[in-house]
Design brief:
52% helix, two-stranded antiparallel ribbon, 9% strand, mainly alpha
């Protein structure tokens, strides 16, 4: 299993409960204002988030309830899982502390 593979590599895996996609998308929207993105290192991830969208039904002329499954959906799903299951103390950190943390990380001091 994926869990056993992670254990062999000395990583601890946590199996998350299944959830509906809507609350996860809302969690990402709420989390994004607290995020800092490295323009170079996160370029592909940010591009994927910008391209994540709902599927359009040409027959009915409206959008479907579920997102389009394409190249951007894996990055968006990863972000959604992180937003829903990240420790609450991370989401509660104020902007100044997060900026300080990011500056130290960029300088290799973490």
């Amino acid at each position: 299993t994926l869990d056993s593979t992670f254990r062999k590599l000395n990583f601890k895996a946590t199996v998350l409960p299944q959830s509906h996609i809507g609350p996860g998308i809302d969690a990402v929207r709420n989390m994004l204002s607290r995020c800092f993105f490295d323009a170079v290192r996160c370029e592909k991830w940010v591009k994927a988030l910008r391209n994540y969208r709902r599927e359009f039904d040409e027959n009915v002329g409206t959008y479907k309830a579920n997102p389009l499954h394409d190249w951007s959906s894996h990055a968006a799903d990863m972000t959604r899982m992180g937003a829903m299951y990240s420790p609450t103390n991370w989401l509660g950190v104020d902007r100044k502390k997060m900026q300080d943390h990011y500056a130290k990380a960029r300088k290799g001091r973490l």
